[in-house]
């Protein structure tokens, strides 16, 4: 499985970005997907996760109401729509695939990681 993330960039505070992560292979639709982020000097943290069928999602409290995770199983792609961006959202964002379900992804994370995409929010 390979995960290719894209969509990061430089944006002003209050702006929006949409991240995408395309997966190779044939396990995408059976796997939970998530986005994590890591800011300089900080630990990697969960941003959002979504169940294999898309019916269940989990968003970190810091992004609730601003970020939305979604997926398109026909395209093997997961998205993260980020609105009302703040300077504290600046980080490298990583997509993650977990074959053990959304609960496992939220607590531990899966075995497969994308390469990361930089999001920089200027104030």
Structure description:
The protein is mostly beta strands and 123 residues long. It is 5% helix and 48% strand. It contains one helix and eleven strands, in the order E-E-E-E-E-E-E-E-E-H-E-E. The strands form two sheets. Strands 2, 4, 5, 6, 9, 10 and 11 form a seven-stranded mixed β-sheet that branches. The chain has a four-stranded antiparallel β-sheet with strand order 1-3-8-7, with no helix packed on it. The mean pLDDT is 97.
Strand count, sense and barrel status of the largest sheet are: 7 strands, mixed
Number of beta strands: 11
Instruction: List unreliable stretches of 5+ residues.
Output: none
Q: Percent of residues in beta strands?
A: over 45%
Mean pLDDT: 97
Radius of gyration from the alpha-carbon trace, in angstroms: 13 Å
Could you spell the SSE succession in H and E letters? EEEEEEEEEHEE
Shape: globular
Question: What's the helix count?
Answer: 1
State the helicity in percent bands: under 10%
Structural category: mainly beta
Question: N-to-C terminal Cα separation, in Å?
Answer: 37 Å
What's this entry about, in short?
With 123 residues, the chain is mainly β. The chain is 5% helix and 48% strand.
Q: What's the helix and strand layout?
A:
Elements: E1 3-6, E2 9-12, E3 17-23, E4 32-38, E5 45-50, E6 57-59, E7 67-72, E8 77-82, E9 91-98, H1 102-107, E10 112-113, E11 117-122
Parallel strand pairs: 2-11
Antiparallel strand pairs: 1-3, 3-8, 4-5, 4-9, 5-6, 7-8, 9-10, 9-11
